[in-house]
Design brief:
Layout: H1 38-50, H2 55-74, E1 84-85, E2 97-105, E3 109-118, H3 119-122, E4 124-133, H4 143-159, E5 172-178, E6 182-186, E7 189-192, H5 209-219, E8 224-230, H6 232-243, E9 247-253, E10 257-264, E11 280-284, H7 298-305, H8 314-319, H9 321-337, H10 353-361, H11 371-379, H12 386-396, H13 402-437, E12 447-452, H14 454-458, H15 460-479, E13 482-486, H16 490-501
Parallel strand pairs: 2-5, 5-8, 9-12, 12-13
Antiparallel strand pairs: 1-11, 2-3, 3-4, 6-7, 9-10, 10-11
Helix pairs in contact: 1-9, 1-13, 2-13, 4-5, 6-16, 9-11, 9-13, 11-12, 11-13, 13-15
This protein binds adenosine-5'-diphosphate (ADP) and magnesium ion.
Length: about 500
């Protein structure tokens, strides 16, 4: 498997493939000499030192992740990791039949999806997706406004049913992939603990989000039954499992991050009743809240202090797509104070004054630099880093010489490397915990970790650092049995598949 072959759509066979051999990042050696100003060099060196992830650091992180999982699953509040039982104990087998819907709310967009299942013989007969952007004002509006917007989009999607077939006397069933921390109370109910990933919607925390959705669906006259509430990690695991029974862990690396895994019910002490008949249950680690042993920098601390949730979601703020670009921007701001951009912000003589002022301020605007911008800069292999120069100018409003561009790429590299490697160490921590409980059942066999999310999908350097950390930590022998598989759009499909697997009707239609 090559570096990019980590992108394996759900369903594509990955059986028996060895773990990827790492290919070093192609990077043209720029022959032009570049004299680095002392102040900038000192900031870069300190940054690289503070966020370095040598093997001992990765090992500490993996061990701490395993220990925090154990403490969090023993008792509520036992560790930073909430270890939320999902109540999903019936995973899709491939026998499911019928028409199912899903709603996937996980970040800046939400997706609606329809799935026609034809059992073992026919598999997934037809699917239809639609992605809808959430207007920014709804991300900090009221709960009713947000859910009404979602229910209306869903109603419109259902109306355009087309060739999809729903048997008579059967209610429409929907799986709700809701990727925020929820205290689950059953397979189809759960109370929102708090919004994350930049959402600050009033009136939802402490409420059952299924009830919120049901009320909104009623208001728009949509007749539908929510048969499963899952987060995107749980849904991704289910989707990947539909095709491959070796899938045991799923990880989301997008705007935010989370991971879940298949646990034995008798190894979940805090689950008061043994509610599962299958003996297993997916547990959502909520690993975004992990904090132990992380190599943090002054820039992380400042970003955290100014965030809407200080001291929370530290792992998420270190490894997920919402934050990586912002960390880089903060480093560049500090470097600009000691002359990284030569003190010369662009003169836009033809611009009106107000616009010129705005343009010059872009570097100082929180979240002006996105993670996709950062990724694009790292992908620029041109001799004079022209692409980096354009992004610095267009996005941050600064002029740059070759030296400044090279430093910028080094900053991106440091932050992407730390993010990818820590995510890899987190995955190893989960596998380690599972292995300790069931010697030989994890590391001795082929096992699959399903990964989804825009960050993993579109950021090749990040992906390769993640894989590199896993190989370093597990060694080549064990890594050979491990497949890191991209499970594209798994959360929507998975939510529909869980709805199908937990459907109250017989799978005979
Ligand atoms: P969500 O997490 O909101 O459900 P996605 O899984 O699609 O959505 O992830 C979107 C996130 O992925 C973006 O917020 C961004 O951080 C990251 N991302 C998207 N495209 C790229 C890219 N080209 N390079 C790096 N990161 C990207
Ligand atoms: Mg998502």
């Amino acid at each position: 498997m090559s570096l990019t072959a980590g992108i394996t759509p759900v369903g594509a066979s990955n059986v028996g493939r060895p773990f990827p051999k790492l290919v070093s990042r192609p990077r043209e050696i720029v022959a032009v000499r570049c004299s680095l100003n002392y102040g900038v060099a000192a900031i870069l060196t300190k940054l690289q030192k503070d966020c370095a992830t040598p093997l001992p650091v990765l090992r500490h992180v993996a061990d701490a992740m395993a220990a925090d999982m154990r403490a969090g699953i023993a008792v509520d509040g036992g560790s930073d990791l909430k270890m939320i039982p999902s109540y999903v104990d019936t995973l899709p087998t491939g026998n499911e039949r019928g028409l199912f819907y899903a709603l996937d709310l996980g970040g800046t967009n939400f997706r609606v999806l329809r799935l026609q299942l034809g059992g073992k013989a026919e598999g997934i007969i037809a699917t239809k997706f639609e992605q809808v952007a959430i207007p920014p004002e709804l991300m900090c509006g009221t709960s009713e406004e947000l859910f009404d917007f979602i229910a209306s989009a869903l109603a419109k999607f259902v109306e355009e049913g087309g060739k999809f077939h729903l048997p008579l006397r059967r209610a429409r069933e929907i799986g709700f992939a809701f990727s925020f921390p929820v205290r689950q109370t059953s397979i189809n109910s759960g109370v929102l603990i708090k919004w994350t990933k930049g959402f600050a919607v009033s009136g939802t925390a402490g409420k059952d989000v299924v009830a919120c959705l049901n009320a909104a669906m009623e208001r728009v006259g949509l007749d539908m039954r929510v048969s499963a509430l899952v987060n995107d990690a749980v849904a991704t695991l289910a989707a990947a499992r539909y095709w491959d029974e070796d899938v045991v862990v799923a990880v989301i690396l997008g705007t935010g991050t989370n991971a879940c895994y298949v646990e034995r019910v008798d190894a979940i002490p805090k689950l008061s009743e043994l509610t599962s008949t299958s003996g297993i249950m997916i547990v959502s680690t909520e690993w975004g809240a992990f904090t132990s042993c992380l190599p943090l920098t002054e820039f992380d601390r400042e970003m955290d202090a100014e965030s809407i949730n200080p001291c929370e979601q530290i792992f998420e703020k270190t490894i997920s797509g919402m934050y990586l670009g912002e960390i880089v921007r903060r480093v560049l701001v500090k470097m600009s104070e000691v002359g990284l951009f030569g003190g010369s912000l662009p003169e836009k003589l033809f611009m009106p004054f107000a616009l010129r002022y705005f343009h010059r301020e872009k570097l100082f605007m929180p979240f002006a630099l996105s993670t996709p911008d950062m990724c694009a800069m790292q992908r620029d292999t041109s001799r004079d880093l022209e692409g980096v120069g354009s992004i610095l100018y267009d996005v941050l409003g600064v002029n740059s010489d070759l030296c400044a561009r090279r430093v910028t790429v080094d900053v991106c590299e440091a932050i992407a490397k730390r993010g990818g490697q820590l995510a890899g160490a987190g995955i190893v921590g989960i596998l380690q915990k599972m292995e300790e409980d069931s010697r030989g059942l994890i590391f001795g066999k082929r096992r699959v970790v399903a990964v989804d999310g825009g960050l993993y999908e579109h950021y090749p350097q990040y992906r390769s650092y993640l894989q590199e950390a896993i190989v370093e930590l597990l060694g080549s022998e064990i890594s050979r049995n491990l497949v890191i598989q991209h499970s594209k759009d798994g959360s929507g499909i998975g939510a529909a598949l869980i709805a199908a697997a937990n459907c109250k009707y017989e799978h005979d239609s």
